[in-house]
Amino acid sequence: MDTVADAIADAAIFGADTVIVQAGIVDCFPRISSREDRERLNSLRPELRDVIRKFLRENRDAVLAEAGSVVYTSLETYRDSALQAAMLAQRLGLNIIFLSIVAHSDLEYATPGVMNNVEQYNNALREVCALTECAEYFDLTEFSKDKELLHDDLYHISPQGNARLALLMRNHLVRPASCASTGGQAEGKKLQAFVKARAEVLHVLGGVLAKAGHTARADAAEKAAAQTIIHFPSRRTGNIPTSAFIEITNHCNLNCTMCNTQMSKRMKGFMSPEVFDKVIARLQSVGIYRAALHTVGETLLHPNLGDLLGIARKRNFSVFFSTNGQLTGKLEKILPYYSGLFNSIRFSIDAATPETYALIRKGGKIERVWKSFQLIRDFNVAHGTNFGIVTNYILSDTNIGEIDSFIDHVSEFAPVDSMKFNLPNSLSPDPSFLKEIFSFHSLIYPTGYGCMLPFNTVAITFDGKVSLCCRDYDADLTIGSFLKDNPLGIWRGKQAEAIRQGVLGVGECPGLCAKCHNVSGSEISSMFIHNARALGLRDLGARLWSVLAAMAHDPYDLGGVRKACLNALS
């Protein structure tokens, strides 16, 4: 167990109701040098390094008084970490108790400033507890005043003190809960039940695969089950974004059920080659060397796509894009020249028959997609290449019965494991469609409980604005200009932080984020379908739907989920 987040996740796994966090003095203890200072000191010649260390030790009090002190963890980071822990506990349906930092006042004589730091950091814990419904601050001031309850260092609790603390905690916890179960906690408990139900499905899948002799697949399912349990990473903003989307256009030639792109009110346009070049240069300046070339538009519609790809190649910048596969002619023009820039293309295709395809992807024809697949296969044969086809199939009540025929046909062009199957989300100008195309409404949950995008991703619109969402139809989450502003300045700026606080639930949630919902079960859909197919089963959609029905009926009934999964795999 490495972090508080790990402890909270473990507590949820074992069905605990409350997590107790003992805050220590290490974060706020005054120091005469920072970690960065010590790293620089260690890089010096040994004789010089030793002289400086000796001087600092012998003159510690004077250095503290003259230059002020640094701390191991800044007050801002400390408050943010505590808030992250409290929000994670709430998302998992847990209570969390923060025990205050303990320090006897005699420490002040040896280390000036320590008591002021302790008070500030304890106040930060109080603020966090005031902001979150499930968090409680437990004051241990009496321990700080009684040396019998402390070790000789005056900031660690002694065995006698620990015995007293255990008694206090026992008496405190048997009382009626000081922070009653809230809507957020109830949602968190339900969401954690979904996490355990998904893990149960993967455990069953692994067992069935092992019995059938599919050892590698069984191991992968068991590994996925273990990873599924730890579902909520700690969301902290990095110094730089780690991934990027470049919207070269927000025009689209279709109006699919899941997107309703035509409802977007934002001005339509194409990114110019000059802007594209500047965007790539700026991304590289902050350490990003790969980006997707789409957000809500169709990449192949760009009239100068070849020029953009040429710029990317010249700058040694990797790209990835997704297409609806309707523009075979455009694909034919770029493939011979730029296939080395990306080794595959993802095709969004959610049907196997012309009728269903036309119903979902309004304005499109499935025959054009098959033609694009044939183009790539012919290209590979002619050039001895292995350019890949990846498919993304959004599962719904409309197309669930076509999975077998879809795999049968697409497997002529691509391996089954390159076919991705996901449940829908509600990111659309009109999110009401989700409940219309997906029957299991109880599996729908707010994306904000686990969304990582505002904390690690930038999306650059065609006119150079920066958004914290890759599907920002109307630029609701823009935080500045990627062309005019300092990229790192706006990444850590007030607008960006306000959006993140809203997503975390401790500020006003942006409208786009408030309407965004996901479906539990999407995380296991591809693995279930791929492996059921490997077991020689048919009617894959109905089998998956029966498992999701059990999860939707009662996610707390793991026995029922297990039985449904075994039946689905028989």
List keywords for this structure.
570 residues, alpha/beta, Rossmann fold, TIM Barrel, 3 domains, four-stranded mixed β-sheet, four-stranded parallel β-sheet, 25 helices, 11% strand
Structural description of this entry:
- The chain is of the alpha/beta class.
- The chain has three domains: 1-25 and 73-173, Rossmann fold, CATH 3.40.50; 183-230 and 521-569, no CATH class; 243-517, Alpha-Beta Barrel (TIM Barrel).
- 48% of the residues lie in helices and 11% in strands.
- Strands 4-14-15-16 form a four-stranded mixed β-sheet.
- Helix 14 packs parallel to helix 16 (366-383).
- The radius of gyration is 28 Å and the shape is globular.
- This is Radical SAM core domain-containing protein.
- It comes from Solidesulfovibrio carbinolicus.
- Its cofactor is [4Fe-4S] cluster.
- One of its GO terms (molecular function) is hydrolase activity, acting on ester bonds.
- Keywords: 4Fe-4S, Iron, Iron-sulfur, Metal-binding, S-adenosyl-L-methionine.
The CATH architecture classification of the largest domain is Alpha-Beta Barrel
Strand content: 5-15%
Rounded mean pLDDT score: 89
By DSSP (H or I, 4+ residues per run), the number of helices equals 25
Would you give the CATH topology of the largest domain? TIM Barrel
Our measurement of the CA-to-CA distance between the termini, rounded to an integer number of angstroms, reads: 38 Å
Q: Which ranges are low-confidence, i.e. pLDDT below 50, for 5 or more consecutive residues?
A: 176-182
Shape, per Cα inertia axes: globular
- How much helicity do the residues have? 40-55%
Cα-atom Rg, whole angstroms? 28 Å
* CATH superfamily annotation of the largest domain: Aldolase class I
**For the report, how would you describe the main beta sheet?**
4 strands, mixed
Number of domains: 3
Q: For the largest sheet, list the strands in their spatial order.
A: 4-14-15-16
Number of strands: 17
- Mind telling me the CATH class of the largest domain? Alpha Beta
Summing up helix and strand content along with how strands pair, one would put the structural category as alpha/beta
